[in-house]
Design a protein that fits this description.
The chain is of the alpha/beta class. The protein is built from ten helices and eight strands. The chain has two domains: 2-181, TIM Barrel; 191-227, no CATH class. The protein is 39% helix and 15% strand. Strands 1-2-3-4-5 form a five-stranded parallel sheet. A three-stranded antiparallel sheet has the order 6-7-8, with no helix packed on it. Strand 3, helix 4 and strand 4 (103-106) form a beta-alpha-beta unit. Helix 1 (8-25) runs parallel beside helix 2 (43-55), helix 4 packs across helix 6 (121-127) and helix 7 (147-158) crosses helix 8 (162-168).
């Protein structure tokens, strides 16, 4: 912000000591996020902020390893729910994430929007990491939206199975958001469903976004249908 131009420490102190308690009191958000990158925040910058956030009961998400490495280590150290981006992750970061409970989130829309490498989803899965897929829909770097198209493209480039991709946009995505009551079709979970008019679940990705849900159910209630 202009009020803190060039003074990251003062800005983070204000966030930690003034804004976070207000957000918690008014229950405005369950988690905090930070971009760990050259030109943004370093591990040293963000540690006091994340420590205060954890003490207040916030979950943590880290935008990590998009252009340079270092963010994954921050995510694992602070027991973050997820580390998002990871396009620059090497075998060191991949193995570190695989040994943790941090969900690795691939954002193919950002790779397409910026002309960058894709998140090494295949290597992450092979190492034992849990991989979610999200759109990163934003006007600056990922304007396309269209999660199904992005997921299909990532799956093709990273040689993912249909099951791995679908898990990435359902159960793994819910886990990355700390939502333990949805994302799986099983008794006791919220009935949040997207229904597709097809005879085979593999066609959802085969059509690369052209096959859209025919119905959407939210908490067991039909909220959209074009049947």
């Amino acid at each position: 912000p202009k009020d803190f131009d060039g003074n990251k420490e003062e800005y983070l102190e204000m966030m930690a000591n003034e804004l976070l308690p207000k957000i918690k009191k008014e229950n405005l958000s369950p988690r905090v996020d930070a971009f760990i990158e050259e030109g943004a925040f370093s591990r040293a910058d963000i540690t006091p902020y994340f420590e205060k956030a954890s003490a207040l009961g916030f979950d943590i998400t880290v935008h990590a390893d998009q252009f340079s490495v270092g963010g994954s280590e921050v995510a694992v150290h602070h027991k973050a729910l997820s580390a998002d981006h990871l396009e620059a992750s090497t075998s060191k970061e991949i193995n570190l994430l695989a040994k943790s409970d941090v969900i690795a989130v691939a954002l193919p829309g950002a790779s397409l929007g910026l002309g960058c490498n894709f998140t090494p989803a295949r290597a992450l899965l092979d190492a034992g990491a849990a991989v979610a897929i999200a759109s990163d829909h934003n006007p600056g770097s990922a304007p396309m939206g269209q999660l199904l198209t992005q997921a299909a493209i990532l799956g093709a480039f990273e040689k993912l199975t249909t099951a791995e991709v679908l898990a990435g946009i359902t159960y793994r995505a819910a886990t990355a958001l700390g939502l333990k009551d949805r994302g799986v079709l099983t008794q006791g979970m919220l009935a949040d469903l997207a229904l597709f008019k097809t005879r085979d679940h593999r066609e959802i990705l085969y059509h690369q976004g052209n096959l859209q849900p025919s119905s959407v159910i939210k908490k067991g209630a039909l909220v959209y249908s074009n049947l």
